[in-house]
């Protein structure tokens, strides 16, 4: 009995000791202005499961902490990390720390462009970070618009949220047309948004930024050759918010006006917290209605997305389940007509700030060339309807003995349906082209052509076009006329794109005293298809185009319908693509971070990549039946529908290459480092190579792999009130396949010219810096100065016909590389004191060559953005943002002469000299927009 009492007593004592040996610790984290920092992470030993995050008051609390000595790590994006030793006991349970500002996030851990997370200053790459604060200072006009704030990045958002262009360091040639992300990888949480690119199908279709994004990491060139899938030009990684200990979130209401008063309405929300038993969640998204920056008769963008992640932590790692559902409609702007080659001005009554020059809303049904018993509904107000359903798993585990692994995998199902216009050229009513497009393989419609407003049915104009084929002008037969005596040369652009994808990256890591070895496997699989169909459409050429119903009404003859009731003509006869492909991407990689000394670290990385493209294109031919599809001899619009012949041209090609990159980092001090890197990467062709270049001909050879060589030398420094990072670079791009989009007037057919393989080289200096003369003032300056050259460049001249007997090539070697400014920069002044925050930003875009002939230059322009915000209380704040405050009318792009299917390379010096008064097509930047934001933090 006594022994039992002793045992009970010992158990009680042991239990009491155990209870007293554990405690809770708490404290506050503030900045140098004594303001609380929300969202700071507090960790006790990286191998323990003891951590916390600060709330809106900067307060944190960690429970069940055994007494003892710990290595305390406090970190937050935008502040220098604190790492110190502490003792936790009954008398020492409250801690307070002040975080010093990290002006350029040089002491912040980055995960992009590296296999093992490290601080920016320790990395040997050119990487930049946009914080949540930076993102909130940008008017929400799409991904590319946001990336204009990254130094050294050329980002063209003039078309709107999609159909954008992003590239760096002159690695741009194949990204200047309709594959604007050709060389770079747009990523979400470390994996590409999409594996597939081809004409009018890029990753920006499936990406939107909202409150669920915590930061953006941007890697320019360098280690992208060994860390990204087929993207040697760089990586733009949008990193989602993770969990917080306490339930917290944010709701943001936005309302703005753009251009001539077009409204934007948007709501964003995000919520996260603990679910218990080491489970955490974060979820959010947005929805918007946007009338667009330019004037259209329909809503330009509508829709949104929902994203979530759920995390389960354990003593040695985590498991994260994440997903996204995007369902979004948006559109893209075409170019506008200008005259005066030396000082372009809007022509034909158009306006660079407000004109969209797009087909208005209408609802037509066009026979589907794949099956003429079916029709495709067509409505330009739909734009591009993008859907993306994705979910994935991210696993990290410490295996012990300095081994760990990470595996990130994602499944997605994507679709993009385009219903919009392609081209908006000026076509005179005296130009035979407009009638030839209707009458291909049929008698030319000569005589009295009647144009009616398709909506009202009212006759607008009646002309006699009898003499146009012999060079005589058309004549008006009544008082009615068409605006600018022209119609718009445009096509209904209908595309169905689908892709089911799986991608994965597995990394195994082993750490020694002087080595940090990472090796693994990346894979990607995509099953994709594309269908494209184009029909001519009649509309007026004016600020707000109207759809035209067109007939041929010669006296004594039956009325011939040249268009249907909606103005659509030549059903499905301008474009036809029906293709499918399976893509397999496999890569194995290894990277060693070798510590040569306390101050010198060497990076050695290699990647073997294999990419297989297997698929086929349908051959096609015009539908042949007397009277067309409907059998009616008096309806000319359905006589030439392109449809499959039953034959297919298959392709099955594999591209193998080895990329490598080596870098060195010399740590001068804790706040300064010098780095250098050499990289050799490659770029395999995208699917547009097969889909665009082999219409009705065998695909008898694989595409060329482009080679990218890059050298960079950089210096990073973080001083008390001044920080900077600067990189000198040299880059060379070889085997650039260049082809042009052409129109044959004799056959009314559209084709691509034979590919020419060229080389470019760019030398430049990138920089980003921050200066804070006072605690509440900051000045930021970033940009690039570069010299881009087309060292070897040939352009194929098809002489406006499919016939190759009169073709030639022109040598432009040594000219300046087009679409690359020699200077571009951002200057930002920020004020942040008490409850008020404001900024003003000057973005400068230098002069660019419009084409490789260097015959036309796009002038430099400046854009000013500004914003002011006020924190009403601890939960509520209000902000006003303005972009393009002075309504600058800069020009972002040049598309050549203002004729149907023209291209920039056709505007040579000889052409401009011979046509000084000709109109041409440019793409203006987006006009002024002002936005009111109300933020409520939970």
TrEMBL record:
InterPro entries: Beta-barrel_TonB (IPR000531), Beta-barrel_TonB_sf (IPR036942), CarboxyPept-like_regulatory (IPR008969), Plug_dom (IPR012910), Plug_dom_sf (IPR037066), TonB-dep_rcpt-like (IPR039426)
rRNA processing keyword on record: no
Record domain TonB-dependent receptor-like beta-barrel: where: 328-885
Classification via Gene3D superfamilies: Carboxypeptidase-like, regulatory domain (2.60.40.1120), TonB-dependent receptor, beta-barrel domain (2.40.170.20), TonB-dependent receptor, plug domain (2.170.130.10)
Keyword tags: Cell outer membrane, Ion transport, Iron, Iron transport, Membrane, Receptor, Signal, TonB box, Transmembrane, Transmembrane beta strand, Transport
PROSITE patterns assigned: TONB_DEPENDENT_REC_3
Main subcellular location of this protein, as a coarse class: membrane
Name of protein: Outer membrane receptor protein involved in Fe transport
Species annotation: Mariniflexile fucanivorans
